[in-house]
Amino acid sequence: MLGEGRPDLDLASEITVTKQPNPSWSYGDGVKDYDASANTHREIDPYAADRPMVNNYRLLISGIAPRPIGFISTVSGDGKRKNLSPFSYFQVVDHDPPIFIVGFSSRPGQEKDTFRNLKESGECVINTVSENMIEAVNACSLDGPYGISGWDISGLHEAPSATVKPSRVEESVLSIEGKVVDIKEFQAHFEGLSVAGLVLIQATRFWARDGAVNEDASHIDLEKLRPVAQLGGMSYGRITSTFELPRSRWAVEQPSSGLLKSLQSLDPDSRK
Ligand SMILES: Cc1cc2nc3c(=O)[nH]c(=O)nc-3n(C[C@H](O)[C@H](O)[C@H](O)COP(=O)(O)O)c2cc1C
């Protein structure tokens, strides 16, 4: 059995809050104990003739981590086929208007059903993934025949949406109904593969779980969200510890920093 010999995961353990990594950091300090001689880099050409494409996949999913998972519900253009699948080439890219991006990889033969449905119907619901959902979510990534959906095989529950046809996932802490605002297709690098695609989605409605969202619907409680992040290989990450680090302003910081004061007085044209 996978994971044999490893400790059980304790879903009930609380998230700890610690100090920041280096509380005494000041402007110009860079990274503590940095050793340039131990920090050399290797140049990699993603398109080198002898480089298998899967190496780019493995490098990028392990190096661009953690990635949030967008769990996307769609229906086909004729409204007959439902789909529910996870995607971690996913991010919120702005809040005004609320915009999200999802990337669909190419694969042998047909493009991903979710991508096809988004192109046909222009609608979806993006649902968050909490720790207690991950096995059900992973099951939804099975490459079943078109028309057999994650809803059929995961045991997750459908809840009605307000502004789009696809259902939202009742188990999710936050669901975002949205409409497609743009689609970009990329020709596959290798023959026989479907196009890859990028879809921009604008939110039309939010649904936040009672008890996980505050009074004015401006904050989701991390203890309730318990997000799962996708890492490299078949690894996932949890958030078990956080720290706070406020973002400051030049006008606040400059008067008390020798470095920022000296930069302010420099003529921009004299800088390298
Ligand atoms: C956690 C997770 C994240 C995934 N992220 C992506 C992704 O970002 N892009 C992608 O094309 N496939 C991704 N997949 C694979 C798809 O979920 C899988 O191909 C699925 O069968 C697509 O479903 P569909 O063809 O019904 O749309 C991911 C799978 C898992 C388990």
TrEMBL record:
It comes from the Eukaryota. Its cofactor is FMN. GO terms for molecular function: FMN binding. Signal peptide: none annotated. Keywords: Flavoprotein, FMN. SMART domains: Flavin_Reduct. Residues 62-222 form the Flavin reductase like domain. SUPFAM superfamilies: FMN-binding split barrel (SSF50475). It holds the Pfam family Flavin_Reduct. The keyword Flavoprotein applies. InterPro entries: Flavin_Rdtase-like_dom, Split_barrel_FMN-bd. Belongs to the flavoredoxin family. This is Flavin reductase like domain-containing protein. It comes from Conoideocrella luteorostrata.
